[in-house]
Backbone:
């Protein structure tokens, strides 16, 4: 059980925050490029899911899994997108993302008067609290190789 | 429940698709004047574009007016649907809407769209040597994908609670090797049109839905 990395995008596709914990492989492109690629592929996945769905969907895309990791997606009503990658065995990641939004993002980013929505979050307090939150979550364990 | 099976060739083209049990979603409702739905009158279909309510969603097509089938923008008896909907004296009107099925063109488009997503998923991986997407889940379905060593992708769209789909994918691969690859008239990368394959796939899927993984 482990958490690899986290992306927070706003509705325009700006990368608000990026955090990584147990990331072993880098994608080989700059962070900026990587964020664009991630946002673009999520956008495509969302439209893919809406089209291929046999019945009308409400929430749409939830997660995908490969043999090495899984990527979970959570979108708020205001189109903020939380994307987290974990190992394939983790459960309850959706709830974790919801809590992350309510307890960390709202508390330490939205309520921070110095942060303008739509700009990257640079607050050190946010970073510390997020780090603490992730490290205390049951999904974040030591990686056993 | 299995909704559909897709096979994508090495180069990313859709070579086979099969709809298994796609539920038919129809909503019938009686409306009074004025109609509170905004409809778009295309040449082929009349589509809801605004005002979704009571199970009628944006994108649904108008199928029938007062029980009479709609063909294009005309009723079966040749009357313009638009004119009927605009006149107050025709109300209350009973309209039936239906969620449109995917056309073959849309399927080809979606299957080739999956190919780059599959590749990007492995590029963006935080761990080395990751495969592409194996399971993609949404609230209404779960897509299972199995890529063979030769690069052919088998995809099954099933209910999220359906178990044993991995085994089913391997079985479909077996059928593919038996009835497509061993067929002397089948050339690789070409659309798969083999009667035996169709029959056996149908049999396999029916059996799978009835008995689960144990009996296939």
Residues:
């Amino acid at each position: 059980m482990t958490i690899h990395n986290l992306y927070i995008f706003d509705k325009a596709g700006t990368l608000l925050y990026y955090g990584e914990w147990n990331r072993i492989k880098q994608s080989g492109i700059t962070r900026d490029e990587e964020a664009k690629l991630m946002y673009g592929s999520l956008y495509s996945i969302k439209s893919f899911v809406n089209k291929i769905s046999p019945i009308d969907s409400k929430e749409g895309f939830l997660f995908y899994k490969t043999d090495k990791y899984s990527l979970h997606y959570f979108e708020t009503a205001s189109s903020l997108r939380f994307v987290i990658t974990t190992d394939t065995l983790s459960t309850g990641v959706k709830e974790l993302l919801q809590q992350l939004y309510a307890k960390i993002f709202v508390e330490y980013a939205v309520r921070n008067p110095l942060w303008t929505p739509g700009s990257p979050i640079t607050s050190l307090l946010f970073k510390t609290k997020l780090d603490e939150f992730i490290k205390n979550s049951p999904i974040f364990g030591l990686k056993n190789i | 429940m299995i909704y559909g099976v897709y096979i994508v060739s090495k180069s990313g083209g859709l070579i086979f698709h099969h709809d298994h049990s796609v539920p038919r979603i129809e909503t019938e409702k009686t409306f009074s004047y004025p109609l509170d739905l905004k409809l778009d009158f295309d040449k082929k279909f009349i589509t809801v574009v605004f005002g979704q309510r009571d199970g009628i969603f944006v994108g649904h097509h108008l199928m029938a007016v007062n029980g009479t089938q709609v063909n294009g923008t005309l009723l079966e008896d040749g009357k313009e649907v638009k004119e009927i909907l605009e006149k107050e004296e025709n109300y209350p009107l009973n309209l039936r809407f239906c969620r449109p099925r995917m056309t073959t063109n849309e399927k080809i488009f979606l299957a080739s769209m999956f190919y780059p997503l599959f590749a990007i998923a492995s590029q963006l991986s935080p761990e080395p040597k990751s495969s592409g997407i194996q399971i993609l889940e949404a609230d209404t379905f779960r897509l299972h994908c199995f890529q063979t060593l030769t690069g052919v992708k088998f995809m099954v769209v099933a209910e999220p609670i359906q178990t044993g789909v991995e085994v089913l994918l391997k079985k479909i691969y077996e059928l593919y090797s038996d009835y497509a690859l061993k067929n002397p008239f089948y050339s690789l990368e070409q659309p798969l049109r083999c009667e035996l394959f169709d029959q056996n796939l149908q049999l396999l899927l029916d059996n799978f839905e009835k008995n689960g993984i144990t009996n296939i």
Remarks:
- The longest strand of chain B covers residues 2-8.
- Chain B has a mean pLDDT of 89.
- Residues 104-123 of chain B form the longest helix (20 residues).
